[in-house]
Input
Amino acid sequence: MSEKEIKNLEEIFEARIARDEKIEPKDWMPEKYRKTHIRQMSQHAHSEIVGMLPEGNWITRAPSLRRKAALLAKVQDEAGHGLYLYSACETLGITRDELYEQLHTGKAKYSSIFNYPTVTWADMGAIGWLVDGAAIINQVPLCNTSFGPYARAMVRVCKEESFHQRQGFEIMLTLSKGSEEQIAMAQDALNRWWWPSLMMLGPTDAESVHTEQSMKWKLKRKSNDELRQQFIDQTVPQADLLGLTVPDPDLKFNEATGHYDFGEIDWDEFWQVVKGHGPCNKERMNARVNAWDNGEWVRDAAMAHAEKKEKKKLKKVS
Amino acid sequence: MNSTKNDNNSLPMGEMSGGQRGNLYNYILGIADNSLILAQRLGELCGHGPNLETDIALTNISLDLLGQTRSYYQYAAKVEGAGKSEDDIAFLRLEREYKNILLVEQPNTHFGYVMARQFLFDIYHLMMMKELQKSKDETLRAVANKGIKEVSYHKRFSSDWIKRLGDGTEESHGKMQEAIDDLWRYTNEMFQMTAADTEMAEAGIGVDVSKFKEAYYKEVSEVLKEATLTVPESKYFAKGGKEGIHTEHMGYILADLQYMQKTFPNMTW
Ligand SMILES: [Fe+2]
Ligand SMILES: [Fe+2]
Ligand SMILES: [Fe+2]
Output
């Protein structure tokens, strides 16, 4: 194809997106679009499955049978989200094995929030309420993104994430109505998860790369700072409802803007965790790599067995 | 409950003697504890499976078992009539009071063990459930009617994996055989009848599991053969779980399971 032809195709492509048409895997797309989507969707998929680990940590210790079942189901939902997202990613011509390889070698990123430890039961509440809550804010706009498989995956995912968010809030509510120890546990969890949740919405606009192109492709519809403000405005009244204190002395409702003003985020901590030096980066990666490596003989056996079966079938036919 | 006698219904609880109630309570726990402890073992694996699909499937099985456990315990609490909740029964007993068979408490040594444990249990579990559908006890019948589909699926899933791993690669064959050989000694305990089991079977409420021992070994052997595995010949079997004498793993399972309830007693979660 000549440069001119490509240019032409690109123009048609951008016009389709501008008209709100969906791009499907078989459609022509610029290489950059394909790469950007593989990067963002796989990062999202990796976040879902690494995200299973901090909550998985409490399945065996959940305080009641009802909570145990709900937690199992939640972590299972996250596996399902990973599955849809990997599948959507695979439509762009990359294999699941390659995607895992990128995760396991540290080439691909996942959400940094999952590098924090879950140290009490209340963390199950705080994660559902805050982390799933922030994820929803990030993801709802993606239900209208330009790439069809991603948009459709997001519709399903968002429905389940809002269920998780309500479930998490309900855990916090139960704790906040409970004993002194339970209230303290809930407050402590809020203290530890608040700032990392704000960081989940990404670096501040001044430092954020890729935004402009992403806006055009509807991979991003609002800036990180706008999303963060939305999250804070939505969450602070919920903390009030719980009778818990948001750990930010500068937090204050601003009558003039109609939004909450908030304190300085510790971006050094953010970058430290992003760069791999958070409290659990090593543990999370080891857990994923071990699961994959220990499962190799199982996957090989499944493949070998399927081949044997196929051969037997062919023999019968001939 | 009304007091009309009906062959299809259990004795109205009011008409049961204290001894009968005690036996029914113990009988229910004997079934339920198997599901609880196996669900707990499977719960340890969530997020660590060989791939996402099996991870999701094993979590499903864990959830099914947990659902069954809750129905049983809720009923047991009612039968006992001492104002306990399902959680009191699940979390607040001493190790010696748990009645699960030793098989279900065995660790997730590797995926072959997970599947062998599941398979050896599922074949039994489905046979038991089918019989329980005929129980004179309405509640147990209802739990069995609901659970039968789930357990049929578990059995299909684990049997398929036994075949895949047994007749997969040389490595998987070796690992699968190792797991079957190791766990074989825990199979016989399933067919032993406790005093409560016998009494409840005689009353038409419980299942006489000793009856399907032969059918069990026959079915297990068929799958193992199809999987190109050797049926173990050992005649030495372990027992004790049903009487509350567990393997050394059990204490650690309970340490996790009971952690919250023991650390923070009498709270709502
Ligand atoms: Fe998710
Ligand atoms: Fe997500
Ligand atoms: Fe979620």
User: Anything to note?
Assistant: The first helix of chain A runs from residue 3 to 18. Chain A touches chain B through 48 residues (CB under 8 Å).
